[in-house]
Amino acid sequence: QLQLQESGSGLVKPSQTLSLTCAVSGGSMSSGGFSWSWIRQPPGKGLEWIGYIYHSGGTDYNPSLKSRVTISEDTSKNQFSLKLRSVTAADTAVYYCARGDDSSGDDYWGQGILVTVSS
Amino acid sequence: DIQMTQSPSSLSASVGDRVTITCRASQSISRYLSWYQQKSGKAPKLLIYAVSNLQSGVPSRFSGSGSGTDFTLTISSLQPEDFATYYCQQSYSSPRTFGQGTKVEIK
């Protein structure tokens, strides 16, 4: 059974960089041709897709965040990461990682990690 | 960006009721439409993908239909564990976008 687990700092100061990692277990990121996504949800609000990294290593980002986001992978550790620069309070959210593809939806999700931006 | 609009934003229903949630895309998205269920404090769970395909393990009381721009999620007989918020998502074009959610509450 595939499992995803987010980790990283739960508190980030304004203007600094949010850094999260998603560890994948029970399967290899390199197999199956999936995309590996980051999605966030501000408290009490809806879901926002941040971006993903493809099985081939390519990336795609939400234009609303593109100038501040980098998603990368470390296949040797079977994990992928999110960096969001120059954060503000508006970036406070639960951040989820997920596996999926365009035709089958996101079928595996991490439990989510709350990141608060505050001084 | 493709805008996804769900209706209603919330609804109250009783156990055993038939519930229908609609999702409209601002342009055609072919069959690149998924539905998710999210319970309070939990990650979203994939229910249906490609408009009408039931994800493994999801009860058959859930069904999806539609094409082009208009889509529907139906719960044929609402159960206590179905009270949650439901989201549609398009994966036809980047950026992937979600509907604003429909909260299903107990009447």
Overview of the structural elements:
Chain A is mainly beta and 119 residues long. Chain A contains no helices and 11 strands. In chain A, the strands form 2 sheets. In chain A, strands 2, 4, 5, 6, 9, 10 and 11 form a 7-stranded mixed β-sheet that branches. A 4-stranded antiparallel β-sheet of chain A has the order 1-3-8-7, with no helix packed on it. Chain A is globular and about 40 Å long. The N and C termini of chain A lie far apart (39 Å). The mean pLDDT of chain A is 96. The model of chain B has no long low-confidence stretch (mean pLDDT 97). In chain B, the strands form 2 sheets. In chain B, strands 2, 4, 5, 6, 9, 10 and 11 form a 7-stranded mixed β-sheet that branches. A 4-stranded antiparallel β-sheet of chain B has the order 1-3-8-7, with no helix packed on it. Chain B has strands at residues 4-7, 10-13, 19-25, 33-38, 45-49, 53-54, 62-67, 70-75, 85-90, 97-98, 102-106. Helix content of chain B is 0%, strand content 50%. With 107 residues, chain B is an all-beta fold. Chain A binds chain B through residues 37, 46-49, 51, 60-64, 96, 100-107, 109-112, and chain B through 1, 31-32, 34, 36, 42-46, 48-50, 53, 55, 87, 89, 91-92, 94-101.
